[in-house]
Amino acid sequence: MNLLDSEVSRINAAITSSSDPDSDGLFDAGEYFIGHGFIAIQRYLTSARTGLRVSLPDAFNVPPMLHGGLSLVAAINAAANYWKHVEEWFEILNKSDDSDLNRNALKTLQQIESVTPWEDYTCANLLAALLDGQELELSRLLPPIAEWRHNLFARLK
User: Fold this and answer.
1) Which of 73, 80, 141, 144 has the fewest CB atoms within 10 Å, i.e. the most exposed one?
2) pLDDT tens by residue, 96-109
3) What's the whole-number mean pLDDT along residues 69-94?
4) Which ranges in 2-121 belong to alpha helices (H)?
5) What's the predicted TM-score (pTM) here?
6) What angle do CA 129, 134, 137 make, to 5 degrees?
């Protein structure tokens, strides 16, 4: 996470000094690193739950919970899936409406929208919402993920 955090920090510093960070590609660069951070965390979550033989629905109902009843790890999982598949979804949406999106895509978008609007730079917006005003560092998600893992172990006893 430190490598990703250092890149996000470098980009944030460049954003503050840029007269047009969007045209400079800085927002896209930040989204790239944050999206990949969510994927890295998703891999950890998957490894933890499968190592304990806990189903995806059961694992993603374990606290910490966000406002509205979605768990933190479900939001992170949705962000990772969003980052991996959003281009496919845009292809579908550009041809028709969201009725052609599969059930998993719709569920992912609904989970994200329960935390932050689905719009440009969704991963960065979601990270900002999850961190609730703290500096945008993916490593700040590690303590609540450790709490989730602790809660997951406790449910197995």
Assistant:
1) 144
2) 555 566 777 888 88
3) 86
4) 2-17, 26-51, 56-59, 72-95, 103-113
5) 0.89
6) 85
